[in-house]
Design goal:
The protein has 242 residues and is mostly helical. The protein has one domain. The protein contains ten helices and four strands. The strands form two sheets. Strands 1-2 form a two-stranded antiparallel sheet. The chain has a two-stranded parallel sheet with strand order 3-4. β1 and β2 form a beta hairpin. The mean pLDDT is 91.
């Protein structure tokens, strides 16, 4: 009850506060190609239910036609204004509306596309037991996901080999430890991450240590070494295809 009340009050307040920013960037996106500035996609939410997911559009029209779900910073589908709004996470702001209507929460595991959810392990399916969130541990630790994937020809496969194993583990850890205090900490660190990623990562490491997270999870979240392929939770096999 407290989480839901906090979600509603904070989301409505933020939507009112950022409405001028949403208007300005919506106009700039429309001005670029005279097309709808809102991108509507399908995502999988609580209990595996699909919902319409809104973002400010950072890509060209019909970018989905490529069939690629994971996006690198070098993706040619990203527009010039899209690069800016992605850098400062402005494209994510419309998701506050999902929080208001109860499809999402401010904090929770990020929602995925069906192509990723359908290959979840039984352990990963527990991620669908809660509402997806705008931010969580992985949103901060892997806020440079686009840069990580830019090195590879198949970003979808590399996402499932390098990022998904830890993103899912972080989501499961959040579900196990979730509380009002943890939500407050993650929201605060998310704001720091927009401007100082290294400081934000260090904060996450400290939080994980405080909550007695697995040593491997803490090690990965330090982000001081290159990511290597690793099995998703609940499996001993590295994903071979996507």
């Amino acid at each position: 009850m407290i989480k839901r009340l906090t979600d509603i009050l904070l989301s409505i307040s933020l939507l009112i506060f950022i409405s001028p920013i949403l208007f300005i960037f919506s106009f700039l996106i429309w001005l670029d190609d005279k097309s709808n500035p809102i991108y509507v996609a399908k995502r999988i939410g609580k209990d595996g239910k699909e919902f319409n997911f809104y973002k400010l559009r950072s890509m060209i029209i019909n970018a989905d036609a490529s069939g690629v779900d994971s996006t690198s910073v070098s993706d040619i589908r990203i527009t010039s204004i899209g690069k800016l709004i992605r850098k400062f996470k402005i494209d994510e702001l419309p998701q506050l509306w999902h929080v208001v209507i109860g499809k999402m929460s401010l904090v929770g595991p990020r929602p995925n596309v069906w192509n990723d959810v359908k290959i979840y392990t039984e352990e990963e399916k527990k991620l669908l037991s809660v509402k997806p969130g705008i931010t969580d541990f992985s949103s901060i630790i892997f806020s440079d996901e686009g840069e990580i994937l830019s090195k590879f020809e198949d970003p979808d496969l590399k996402y499932n080999q390098l990022i998904r194993p830890w993103k899912s583990r972080l989501g499961l850890f959040y579900i196990k430890k979730r509380s009002f205090i943890l939500d407050t900490l993650l929201i605060s660190v998310t704001l720091i991450a927009i401007f100082k990623k290294e400081i934000a990562n260090n904060c996450i490491v400290k939080i994980l240590e405080y909550y007695n997270a697995d040593v491997d999870l803490i090690r990965i979240c330090k982000r001081d070494k290159e990511l290597e392929p690793y099995p998703p939770p609940g499996s001993k096999e590295i994903v071979k295809e996507r």
